[in-house]
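Budget justification, computational time. The allocation requested in the original proposal was used primarily to generate structure tokens for proteins on the priority list. As evidence of use, we reproduce two of the resulting records. The first is shown immediately below.
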Amino acid sequence: RIKHWLPEMSEQGVKHFAQLAESAEGLSRLEQVEKEGQALEAAMEAYISSPTQGEKGSRLETVTRTFRKRFAEQLKKAWREGYTQLHDTNAPQDSVIKLDLSEVIWPDDLPALPIDLGLVRHLNLSECDFSTEHADFLRHFPNLRVLDLSDNSLDRLPAAVAQMRSLRGINLSNNQIVLDDAAIAHLRDLTSLRAIYLSDNPLGQVPDISRMPDLLELDLDDTGISEWPAGLFEHDRDARFNLLLRGNPITTLPDVVMGGDEAFVIATARLDPSTLDAESRSLMDEYKRSVGID
């Protein structure tokens, strides 16, 4: 019964889970696994066998169903790995459940998932022509820590990202994303973020990082912005903080105290000095000297 849904679970893990299932709480956990497994299996079977754009028996139909099957297998594998780690006492507890769909040939359509894959922590959807019309798919991954949507066709921040409160790293580089006020608010509220990659997007506005005390990396290269990130100095940014502003028409610098942490952030920011006005170029030299950078 356990092995049917979680075939990778160790023998010791199966024995422990079976013993646990003798209690009401343990039985409830097992029944949850079975219920989710049945729902996911039924949904994937329906997805694979649903009509395609190809005529019955055609090569297009065969190829489409093959791609759908491979995609579905990756989803089921991630689901199994998540519950195996959760319930197998012999499984490494520090391992992270990762789902990489960037290397899978994407099917003609995405499946409707009947459950959330809440145990997946890293999701890679880079370079797969993921667009705004696919964005609803992300709501099934509410507990992500790392999300990679780089090199795709997004034109806005997916709404589902706002619910990913555990997110520590997000890569949205090389899309066509424009930030509106709602998107800026959604990003600002992701207070656990440590890395944000937004390079090569026509952002239109700068992100607000005022509620991100642990942020260490902010990549805004080639985004067309002319201002520094909002909330940059709301928290102390130590020497590890890396701010990338290259390829942008930034002409001025923030006015901060010489020799302090804020001056260090400005002095170490990567930007194009040639875009700065004469006064700001001189000020940058002063900031650098004040923190010991020649």
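The second record produced under the same allocation is shown here.
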Amino acid sequence: LLVHARFLFFAKKAISRRTAFASAGGRGTLQHPQVSHPIVRFAELLMLGGVSLVIVLQYATVLGGATTKLFGIDNTFTLRYLLSAVVDSRGALVDTLSLAIVTSAVTAGIGLLAAFYIARTDFAGRGAIDFVASLPLAIPGTVIGLAFALAFNHRPLLLTGTALIIVVAFAVRALPYSIRAGVVAMHQLHRSMDEASVTMGATSGQTLMRVLLPLLKPALVAGMIFTFTRSVTTLSAVIFVVSPHWSLVTPTILSQMDRGDVGEAAALSTIVVVLVLAVIHGVPRLLGRDWRTQK
């Protein structure tokens, strides 16, 4: 896995050097040439419609399991499972949301600094940091979770059973995406803006916070939303580090399925989907602008 990841990493960097571009004004565009050929458009609609239908049917099945007494056998409508999920799994929901929010903030800060170091400095080791930060993408989450459980199970780094080990596991899995998003966004901003800021007497930190950060807001928000979503829905990376003191939603759903409580598991899954969709579509608008439609 690591050999393949190394090959793809350097191949991607070689291709990026040939196709990279920068914006002197720091404003991008989402406008692309539209396909007008009717056969091509129909084929695209047919393919995307089929994929979307499969996805919608999966979510509809989960919703059906959460709102019927016994999905497929007794389809009588009921809200008992949803109410039970809110009451019985309230602790898991609160713990998961709080830890995911903390992880989003931590990952955004570390990812921004790492991206600035990789894309805007000439210090040695930039490539090594970029490569090492991408390694968690090539390692299965179960391996990472097991490694954390073994590495932090003894003093002086005894973190087993604490919230910190869960936040670290969340961050390690999501940090590569935040760093890549930040690096790509910084590469699209021309260095002349940095040079102009330095010419006016600003330090590197002031340039980052006052010049680059406002322009990187869409990428930063996107990275935080992705980190939150991935933290709430991940299972493999945290299955070995959860404890009775800090319960998470995904292990709770797995435990309910093992006990045969399909209705409660479907109800809790439905609540998680609603919360994630609310964050994805609500946070950008609460910040004053939808980052997906920035012009």
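A brief technical remark on that second record: The first strand starts at residue 68 and ends at 70.
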